Amino acid sequence: MHHIQMCILVSVAMASLLYILHRGPSVSGVKESSLSGTPITFPSQSKKEWRNLFKPCASQRLFLPSLLPEVDSLLYVDTDVLFLSPISDVWEYFYKFNDSQLAALTPEHENENIGWYNRFARHPYYGRLGVNSGVMLMNLTRMRKFEWEKHILPIHNEYRLRITWGDQDIINILFYYHPDKLYIIPCEYNYRPDHCMYMSICTSSQKGIKIIHGNRGYFHSDKQPLFRIIYEAIEKYQVGTSPYQNFLLPLQSSLIQQNINDSNCGKISNQAVLIANNLFINEYL
């Protein structure tokens, strides 16, 4: 039996992030999970500034190597992220790291014409279009050996007046200087409105969207209703009941609404249910 531990790091106001920790050689046979909470902590210098960098407590993830000294590896996700595939799918990328890589992220964009970093950033960033930090595999053991936090603090001191997206920009700057430390995972593991709001640019999602990220409030907006419909289907699902009857069928029914079909992201709605179809349809028919 393998074990997945989920931990929410909490502040007085609200949870800031979720990490998923696996203990064991593989997560394909996970039978057990647990949940725990850990208090928010920041460096004593500039604590208030770190707490409010970008969004309240968002920068906490930068200090996980020291906050969780007993943890070897974890999967960090923003609180506006939903899984449309087993956690084991993304976790498998840890085993693809070479000896120097200590983290994995998806690209911030796939198209230079509508990318953000290549058009607007006032600081260095990773690669051609930068990376998005909403889903991040973190090998904390390697980060501690690399002395991750000793790199983070001077980056913040130098660039704090030039960053827009807080901790994500700091991560981009770090990997600009240390590109050998980063593994890039495909965009279907951090699928965002930017991938479909103008045109479909995440070509690998044709095999199914694995993790969907409703950043900028898209889970609660009708700008691209596909994101809201998926969120509502998961919110209404009662754990322990049939996912085929009570999640997949209602979601498929909702996806035929005219306002979804008329939207740009609605054109890829089949990709959002592809994994669930494969997982549930044979088991529950």
How would you characterize this protein structure?
With about 280 residues, the chain is α+β, with helices and mostly antiparallel strands. It has 11 helices and 9 strands. The chain has 2 domains: about 190 residues, Alpha-Beta Complex (Spore Coat Polysaccharide Biosynthesis Protein SpsA, Chain A), CATH 3.90.550; about 90 residues, no CATH class. A hairpin with a 4-residue loop joins strand 1 and strand 2. Helix 6 crosses helix 7, helix 8 packs antiparallel against helix 9 and helix 9 packs antiparallel against helix 11. About 5% of the residues have low confidence.
Q: What distinguishing features does this structure have?
A:
single chain, 285 residues, alpha+beta, Spore Coat Polysaccharide Biosynthesis Protein SpsA, Chain A, 2 domains, seven-stranded mixed β-sheet, two-stranded antiparallel ribbon, 11 helices, globular
